[in-house]
């Protein structure tokens, strides 16, 4: 236990991925019922709702109580299939206690479904009731015929599924959002190694591949070069090409992913799809792959085939630095986490009553002062800051959607522009709004500012959308409000952008315009409702952001936050095609006819910043709930209805957040998986590690105080107890449970590589976590294959693995060289270098090292194989350990004036061995050297 290795993914539950099909979902299938509840809006209870996949609506019968002449045997629900077909299984999802105590499951084989036969009699059905009938003859209709009930609230069927074969199990797996299709493979896992490369099909993909490699390099310590050419079994191949099964309108982001012991292959029609496929691969690797520090591994992924593409084109998170500022680094961190969940829009709320955060040249008073609440955070983005964020996001295929708020929520801007005396209407008392009266000159002064601000924003924002806010203009004359919105639409259009605004902004849009309705809720401050069917019958694009389900600043699991609370299940138990209108207490689609499925282009989840203070509080409120909301935006509707399966997928996401140091809410509603990683810690020149992190354990469901830990240093010294550093879960402080880190200090007897173990224990259960303490440096460049000519290592650490080099090698001051299993057909020279390690390597020429930090020519303690040198060896003036162990040298060895520990042992020398001026004097560690010439100086007895 405890090693960084990933589990086996579950099988697909996508009906299209197997032979079994839900016949009730096929086009042409029709649901009907004997009765229907008619409480307005009656469409809430229609029979069709029981065959629409969404499990939180359904059909309800039309009675309120048993008795008064009601005969339950007269109530039925049925589905007429599009085409008669064999039926294997019928699944009903009921809402307790609105279900019969007895019912007959009936089928009909005649075309008009007039003749029925009972195939099974069901008594006391469960809420999830499955009946296998295995009818191989063509069935035209399937009916639930009620027989008896004790319910006083009627019948409610949430879903009625008719399967041609066995109902597939829920999809679990490791990937979130859940893919369209995934199928486990067979054979041995694939392993990412220090020889792995990222192979791109075109040089045009190099920049994207470098971003992706950057996600894997910190945890593995591997170089992972990005190259073109043929892939080997340890490589990751990224190829542009067509992929069968991806619809044409999803080609921009769809991908296929194949993982096997023969390698990893990601294919996509466009680069964004390759990025998405790589994000899925990251989730198949151990959670520790997200660590910013190097771990032991192994870095394996089980065989699998994935075909995937998004449901919606807009999958977003909104941050609110206007209320409380977030730094550029904090927003970059959120961008990385958004990309990991295949989000592709970051909406930045840049102005509100509290502050205006973005530089607008010519308006120095818009300076980022102001924030919301006690201990609040002010700040400011220059236009260069904003452009940097845009570039960082674009490199991860995320568009930043900027929002500058008006006409209300604008106190900071109004004040900075001279107050209501300048940009407010005559007689206006509210200080939070611009003048929107077209007959008042102040409105033109205000719009002149907005023309300038939007023009400057458009010039630094390449994304097609600019958001203008537009909500909660309470008390503003509605016709004036609509006029203002129309003016803003013209301004945004003239800047070459597409406008988006919070409802009811769409009431001011020009007919036929492309402006987007950002639907959130019909909030009118207690006034009469504005929402109406006309909002949704224009064919206008809609982003759904239902306040009831998707607002992430609403509290959960005991955390502070706005109410009503949005617990994990509530954040997942909705669908864009069926949203709850919070302030009207109705479902929007049956009540108002929309948002219509054909108009919805995506989902966005906002976290408003009034109560947020920096990155940690934002992370806590966003994660884990954003994962489910983005799953609604990416994954097929049919795969996002099983809350229990979602929680299982979420359980393996928790360790990923923990290793990435994300402050996620480690809530009890999820049984979080445990994963561990041992570190790779580097020995100093004194062979010492000082308070070094050695082991890390993610176990989000268990308080850290229940664990103890022991360290075995791997050098034969006694194991010792160790403390555990961790944060516990404190919802009231918005504090998630962190990694449990064990650190320690130790001095090793000799320079080398040591394999230790941190053992975590709790109630008889143990996690053995291997770590490595080593003198081998971390590589910055990896060289393999055959290379002609001389080579100079001018910076970093060049690692040669199985390489052949025809010319001399020179290591510059401060640089390093680590060669394993290689051949250098020329001399090796280093002056003032860091590490010079030659392991299992042949050098056809002299080796001369002066003033290095660490020198190994073989070192059995460091897992460094003996080296062959066809020429003399000179090592002088080194400050760290010098080890020449088991080498075969066709010439002399001179070891001179080194000030670190020096070992010259077991070498075969075709010449003299001379050691002078070394402090301390060299030793042979009990392994005498053989030399054809004299042994002199400090090495006379070695």
Task: Using brief descriptors, characterize the structure shown.
single chain, 942 residues, alpha/beta, 8-stranded parallel beta sheet, 14 helices, globular
Strand segment tally = 57
Question: What global shape is seen?
Answer: globular
Structural class: alpha/beta
Report Rg.
34 Å
Strand content: 25-35%
Summarize the structure.
This protein is an alpha/beta fold. The longest helix is centred in the middle third of the chain and has 20 residues, at 441-460.
Can you give a write-up of this model?
The chain is of the alpha/beta class. It is built from 14 helices and 57 strands. α1 (206-220) links the parallel β10 and β11. The longest helix is centred in the middle third of the chain and has 20 residues, at 441-460. Mean pLDDT is 94; it is low at 1-17.
SSE layout:
Elements: E1 30-33, E2 59-60, E3 76-94, E4 102-108, E5 117-123, E6 128-148, E7 156-163, E8 181-184, E9 190-192, E10 198-200, H1 206-220, E11 226-227, E12 236-240, E13 255-260, E14 263-268, H2 271-284, E15 299-301, E16 304-308, E17 314-319, H3 328-340, E18 345-349, H4 383-394, E19 399-406, H5 411-416, H6 420-423, H7 441-460, E20 465-469, H8 478-494, E21 498-502, E22 516-519, E23 542-544, H9 547-550, H10 568-572, E24 580-581, E25 586-587, H11 588-592, E26 600-606, H12 614-622, H13 625-634, H14 643-659, E27 674-678, E28 680-682, E29 688-699, E30 708-712, E31 720-722, E32 740-747, E33 753-762, E34 765-774, E35 781-783, E36 786-787, E37 791-793, E38 797-801, E39 804-805, E40 809-811, E41 816-820, E42 823-824, E43 828-831, E44 835-839, E45 842-843, E46 847-850, E47 854-857, E48 868-869, E49 873-876, E50 882-885, E51 888-889, E52 893-896, E53 902-905, E54 908-909, E55 913-916, E56 930-931, E57 935-937
Parallel strand pairs: 10-11, 10-12, 12-14, 17-18, 17-26, 18-19, 19-20, 20-21, 21-22, 22-23, 23-26, 28-34, 35-38, 36-39, 37-40, 38-41, 39-42, 40-43, 41-44, 42-45, 43-46, 44-47, 45-48, 46-49, 47-50, 48-51, 49-52, 50-53, 51-54, 52-55, 54-56, 55-57
Antiparallel strand pairs: 1-3, 2-7, 3-6, 3-7, 4-5, 4-6, 8-16, 9-15, 13-14, 13-16, 24-25, 27-29, 29-32, 30-31, 30-33, 33-34
């Amino acid at each position: 236990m405890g090693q960084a290795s990933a589990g086996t993914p579950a099988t697909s539950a996508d009906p299209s991925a197997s032979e079994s099909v839900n016949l009730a979902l096929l086009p042409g299938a029709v649901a009907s019922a004997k009765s229907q509840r008619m409480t307005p809006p009656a469409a809430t209870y229609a029979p069709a709702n029981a065959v629409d996949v969404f499990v939180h609506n359904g059909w309800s019968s039309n009675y309120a109580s048993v008795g008064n002449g009601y005969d339950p045997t007269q109530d039925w629900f049925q589905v007429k299939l599009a085409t008669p077909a064999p039926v294997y299984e019928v699944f009903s999802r009921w809402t307790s206690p609105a279900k019969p105590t007895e019912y007959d499951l009936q089928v009909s084989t005649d075309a008009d479904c007039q003749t029925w036969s009972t195939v099974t009699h069901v008594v006391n059905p469960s809420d999830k009731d499955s009946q296998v009938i295995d009818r191989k003859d063509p069935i035209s209709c399937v009916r639930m015929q009620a027989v008896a009930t004790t319910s006083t609230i009627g019948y409610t069927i949430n879903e009625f599924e008719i399967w041609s074969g066995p109902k597939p199990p829920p999809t679990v797996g490791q990937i979130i959002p859940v893919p369209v299709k995934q199928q486990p493979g067979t054979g041995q896992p694939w392993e990412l190694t220090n020889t792995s490369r990222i192979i791109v099909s075109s040089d045009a993909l190099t920049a994207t591949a470098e971003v992706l490699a950057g996600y894997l390099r910190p945890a593995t310590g591997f170089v992972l070069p990005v190259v073109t050419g043929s892939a080997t079994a340890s490589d990751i191949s990224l190829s542009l090409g067509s992929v069968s099964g991806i619809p044409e309108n999803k080609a921009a982001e769809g991908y296929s992913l194949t993982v096997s012991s023969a390698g990893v292959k990601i294919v996509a029609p466009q680069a964004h799809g390759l990025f998405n496929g790589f994000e899925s691969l990251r989730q198949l690797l151990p959670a520790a792959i997200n660590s910013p520090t190097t771990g032991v591994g192994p870095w394996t992924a089980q065989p699998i085939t994935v075909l995937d593409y998004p449901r919606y084109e807009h999958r977003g998170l909104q941050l609110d630095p206007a209320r409380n500022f977030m730094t550029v680094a904090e927003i970059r961190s959120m961008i990385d986490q958004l990309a990991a969940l295949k989000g592709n829009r970051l909406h930045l709320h840049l102005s509100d009553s509290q502050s205006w955060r973005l530089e607008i040249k010519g308006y120095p008073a818009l300076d980022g002062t102001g924030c919301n609440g006690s201990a609040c955070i002010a700040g400011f983005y220059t236009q260069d800051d904003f452009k940097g964020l845009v570039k960082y996001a674009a490199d991860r295929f995320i568009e930043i959607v900027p929002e500058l708020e008006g006409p209300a929520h604008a106190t900071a801007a109004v004040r900075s522009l001279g107050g209501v005396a300048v940009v407010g209407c005559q007689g206006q008392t509210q200080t939070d709004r611009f003048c929107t009266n077209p007959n008042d000159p102040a409105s033109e002064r205000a719009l002149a500012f907005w023309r300038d601000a939007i023009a400057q924003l458009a010039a630094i924002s390449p994304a097609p959308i600019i958001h203008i806010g537009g909500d909660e203009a309470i008390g503003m004359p509605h016709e004036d409000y609509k006029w203002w919105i129309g003016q803003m639409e013209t301004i945004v259009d003239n800047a070459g952008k597409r406008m988006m605004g919070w409802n009811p902004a769409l009431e001011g849009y020009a007919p036929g315009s492309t402006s987007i309705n950002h639907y959130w809720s019909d909030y009118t401050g207690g006034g009469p409702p504005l929402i109406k069917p006309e909002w949704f019958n224009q064919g206008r694009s809609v982003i759904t952001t239902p306040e009831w389900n998707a607002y992430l600043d609403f509290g959960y699991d005991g955390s502070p936050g706005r109410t009503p609370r949005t617990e994990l299940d509530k954040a997942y138990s909705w669908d864009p095609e069926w949203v709850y209108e919070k302030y009207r207490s109705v479902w929007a689609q049956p009540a108002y006819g929309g948002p219509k499925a054909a108009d919805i282009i995506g989902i966005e989840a906002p976290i408003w910043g009034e109560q947020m203070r920096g990155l940690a509080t934002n992370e806590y409120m966003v994660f884990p709930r954003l994962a489910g909301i983005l799953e609604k935006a990416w994954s097929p509707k049919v795969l996002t209805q099983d809350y229990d399966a979602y929680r299982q997928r979420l359980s393996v996401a928790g360790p990923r957040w923990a290793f990435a140091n994300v402050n996620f809410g480690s809530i009890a509603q999820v049984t979080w998986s445990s994963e561990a990683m041992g570190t790779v810690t580097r020995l100093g020149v004194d062979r010492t590690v000082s308070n070094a992190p050695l082991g890390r354990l993610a176990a989000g469901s268990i308080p850290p105080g229940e664990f103890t830990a022991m360290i075995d240093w791997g050098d034969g010294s006694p194991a010792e107890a160790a403390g555990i550093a961790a944060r516990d879960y404190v919802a009231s402080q918005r504090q998630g449970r962190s990694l449990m880190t064990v650190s320690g200090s130790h001095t090793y007897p000799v320079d080398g590589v040591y394999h230790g173990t941190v053992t975590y224990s709790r109630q008889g259960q143990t996690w053995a976590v291997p770590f490595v303490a080593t003198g081998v440096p971390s590589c910055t460049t990896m060289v393999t294959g055959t290379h002609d000519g001389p080579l100079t290592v001018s910076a970093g650490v060049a690692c040669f693995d199985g390489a052949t080099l025809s010319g001399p090698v020179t290591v510059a001051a401060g640089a390093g060289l680590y060669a394993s299993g290689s051949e250098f057909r020329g001399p090796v020279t280093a002056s003032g270098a860091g590490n010079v390690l030659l392991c299992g390597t042949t050098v056809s020429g002299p080796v001369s090292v002066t003033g290095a930090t660490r020198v190994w020519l073989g070192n059995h303690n460091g897992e460094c194989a003996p080296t062959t040198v066809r020429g003399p060896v000179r090592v002088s003036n080194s400050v760290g350990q010098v080890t020449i162990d088991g080498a075969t040298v066709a010439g002399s060895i001179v070891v001179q004036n080194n000030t670190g520990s020096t070992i010259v042992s077991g070498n075969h020398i075709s010449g003299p061995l001379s050691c002078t001026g070394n402090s301390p004097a060299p030793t042979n560690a009990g392994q005498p050297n053989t030399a054809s010439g004299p042994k002199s100086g400090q090495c006379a007895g070695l």
